[in-house]
């Protein structure tokens, strides 16, 4: 399963807010064996959100959109997703009933709070008020991290791919000296390799099975100076 993540918010683009939602979602999707192919940040603009959602919906198995839900002037994500599918925003009875069960009457809420794309599947917001929605394979979640995480967990079983296994080896050598070894490693084993330099080079080895990942990691250990070799 291939997925794309779209995070909405001007505050992300100007650096006022860190994009922790994308990082969290990437980790949870990786846990499920889902490959994230795109992470995109878009402004609070209907046309731009709709364009990206439309493009990614055609290309990937699932699209997760976070942010821009609620009653304020810049909360335009639901309108944009509806536009991407050529649908109207209409009052959703299921969302209204759910909020009523939590003690919110129509008088307590801005009218548009429960307006969702026609024919969508509403998602309850257990940590907040603004509901989410599923439109075909597009999942629209809140931007508040606690709300987003809880809502994602309510649909997590709908995201499933091929599980992978990862082993990390810390190598105490310059990354440039490892390039030939990486080539040999990928010729000898069915793995993907990532290298992340810092105080050491973190070599991340990913394979379809734990055994293959560990055998490849041992191959690297045997041919490298390890960061903990003297400890």
What does this protein look like?
The protein has 231 residues and is α/β, with parallel strands linked by helices. 35% of the residues lie in helices and 25% in strands. The protein contains eight helices and eleven strands. The strands form three sheets. A six-stranded mixed sheet has the order 2-1-3-8-7-6, sandwiched between helices. Strands 9-11-10 form a three-stranded antiparallel sheet, with helices on one face. It has a two-stranded antiparallel sheet with strand order 4-5. A hairpin with a 2-residue loop joins strand 7 and strand 8. Helix 3 packs across helix 4. It is elongated, with a radius of gyration of 22 Å.
Spell out the blueprint of helices and strands.
Blueprint: E1 2-8, H1 10-13, H2 20-31, E2 35-42, H3 46-59, E3 62-66, H4 77-84, E4 89-91, H5 93-101, E5 115-117, E6 121-123, E7 132-135, E8 138-141, H6 145-155, E9 165-171, H7 179-188, E10 191-197, E11 201-207, H8 210-222
Parallel strand pairs: 1-2, 1-3, 3-8
Antiparallel strand pairs: 4-5, 6-7, 7-8, 9-11, 10-11
Helix pairs in contact: 3-4
């Amino acid at each position: 399963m291939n997925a794309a993540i779209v995070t909405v918010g001007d505050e992300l683009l100007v650096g006022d807010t860190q994009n922790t939602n994308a990082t969290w979602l990437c980790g949870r999707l990786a846990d499920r064996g889902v490959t994230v192919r795109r992470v995109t940040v878009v402004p609070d603009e209907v046309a731009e959100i709709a364009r990206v959602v439309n493009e990614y919906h055609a290309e990937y198995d699932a699209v997760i959109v976070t942010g821009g839900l609620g009653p304020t002037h810049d909360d335009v994500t639901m309108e944009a997703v509806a536009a991407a599918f050529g649908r109207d925003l209409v009052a959703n009875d299921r969302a209204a009933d759910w909020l009523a069960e939590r003690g919110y009457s129509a008088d307590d809420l801005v009218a548009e709070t429960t307006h969702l794309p026609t024919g969508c599947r509403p998602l309850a917001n257990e940590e907040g008020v603004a509901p989410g929605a599923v439109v075909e394979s597009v999942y629209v979640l809140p931007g508040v991290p606690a709300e987003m995480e809880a809502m994602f967990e309510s649909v997590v079983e709908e995201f499933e791919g091929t599980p992978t296994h990862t082993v990390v080896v810390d190598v105490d050598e310059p990354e440039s000296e490892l390039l030939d070894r990486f080539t040999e490693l990928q010729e000898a084993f069915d793995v993907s390799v990532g290298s992340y330099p810092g105080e050491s080079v973190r070599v991340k080895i990913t394979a379809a099975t734990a055994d293959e990942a560990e055998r490849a990691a041992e191959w690297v250990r045997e041919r490298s100076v390890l960061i903990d070799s003297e400890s």
